UniProtKB/TrEMBL annotation, chains A, B, C:
<dbReference type="InterPro" id="IPR035917">
    <property type="entry name" value="YjbQ-like_sf"/>
</dbReference>
<feature type="compositionally biased region" description="Polar residues">
    <location>
        <begin position="37"/>
        <end position="56"/>
    </location>
</feature>
<protein>
    <recommendedName>
        <fullName>Secondary thiamine-phosphate synthase enzyme</fullName>
    </recommendedName>
</protein>
<dbReference type="Pfam" id="PF01894">
    <property type="entry name" value="YjbQ"/>
</dbReference>
<dbReference type="InterPro" id="IPR001602">
    <property type="entry name" value="UPF0047_YjbQ-like"/>
</dbReference>
<feature type="region of interest" description="Disordered">
    <location>
        <begin position="35"/>
        <end position="60"/>
    </location>
</feature>
Length: 200, 200, 200
């Protein structure tokens, strides 16, 4: 996915050990885009970024359930896995929304930094610090293991659902943004995500 | 709603006291589904799950504001109440999204465990532990009561909006997932939710 | 935006010092609305709130990237700025959804109280209390400054994406709800938001 590509200047071998990144993000590709109103013959378009292809103006839907392989407890970058599953369909949308819904209550989906794995490790550290686990924890729900109730809480903190804009056939995320799956259970299990694409 | 039904083996009278649930979720019903592109005559369909009904391919919208009765402070399972309000319209969507938007800033909507009420109680325990309340709390905003500022914070932690996929006329959630309304105020009040359905 | 207007009785000069607000929200304008199914000739409409304008039944999409000016660290009400950018297009949607996506990983978008700035200050106080920063913090990711890793965590806690219903040409939010941009970095920078409107 192009948004995750780094230029050689920002991630050269010289800097790989200290993992710096530029203080400001490069300019975003997207411009205002107002799309054809199908059936009306008029063009809702407040600037010059028109859509000349009438085929692209037909609303369409695509939905797919993806199974992600088991991942260890912690935060994981899954942008590539998600995009790989939907790339062909994504490319046909000029403008739209991609909706991800995790079918579980002990893991979560979030958008965060896509470059330094330390950010994912530190986020896991935070979650474990903020949600008590083990004998000192005040939970009533303990039958499924000491990590289960904390996992439910973390799932609601970060959420199980994401909606990402689609622009010109791609997920329109910021340069440093990626999709994370946060696995909150100790025992890795496959996780299912329902992906719904909607747009023109 | 079917996804919340339990087989007698997983929730028999014998186990009702200890509230066990199976360690792994049963397989999810949903398969990849790529829907007709209205007006183009072509079928966007990467597998065999076609939609033979051309009527179902017309994009449609439905929107409704539902008022939930007052609930005591804490986390509440409201899946049935929500589905009951939209069931008839939901059944006409082959593929789509259901969007819920809570019109308040001192309560929240989240997706979490639908079976053991202890999970909801423990989540309320967590929220109260993490957000200080009363004389020791550092809040400036106290005129509406000691529970008001904590309620606002909890509302942003869990959020006031959810989007859930629709598949074959039903909310497509995981076996153990349910919709929770978390009431963060001491004084129960009716809560309004705008429900928007969109799909084919 | 009308939802943020206050009547003189609730925010008169007499009360401006103590910032009271009415204990209960006024009734919400929205009624159930079921919209025309384009192309089918049938009307999905469970009550009397029909849409007499056939033009409004054509699904349409609009997408725009908005750049917000730099804001100091803390929580900021941005409803007016967002609505100003999309007002003209918004007015053409009878029913739909407005999706906001922040293209950054060290700030967040949330819905919360739109009236008392103390609520925003207290929320910032909470975030700083809950996420350790500085020498005592356990983070590995520190190269971009002591406020960077806390900013990433806060971004996932509140999220970078919102979906808000559109009803009768306006964002359909509760009386006290507003859109907040929470800036989690010390150094203010412009922030980009992709806004996608979809509806009829």
């Amino acid at each position: 996915m192009q948004l995750q590509l780094r230029s050689s200047s920002s991630a050269s071998a010289l800097f790989s050990a200290v993992k710096v990144k530029p203080p400001s993000s490069p300019p975003v590709r997207v411009k205002a885009l107002f799309t054809k109103n199908p059936g009306s013959g008029t063009l809702k378009n407040s600037n010059s970024n028109t859509n000349p292809n009438p085929m692209a103006s037909n609303p369409r839907w695509a939905q797919k359930t993806v199974t992600l392989p088991p991942l260890r407890r912690g935060c994981h970058l899954i942008t590539h896995k998600i995009v790989k599953e939907i790339a062909q369909d994504l490319s046909e949308f000029k403008c739209g929304l991609a909706h991800l819904f995790l079918l579980h209550t002990s893991a979560s989906l979030t958008i965060n930094e896509n470059y330094d794995s330390d950010v994912r490790d530190d986020t896991e550290t935070f979650l474990n610090k903020i949600v008590p686990e083990g004998r000192s924890a005040p939970w009533k729900h303990t039958l499924e293991g000491p990590d289960d109730m904390p996992a439910h809480i973390k799932s609601s903190m970060f959420g199980c659902t994401l909606t990402i804009p689609i622009t010109d056939g791609q997920l329109n995320m910021g340069t440093w943004q990626g999709i994370w799956l946060c696995e909150h259970r100790d025992a890795p299990t496959p996780r299912k995500v329902v992906i719904t694409l909607n747009g023109i």
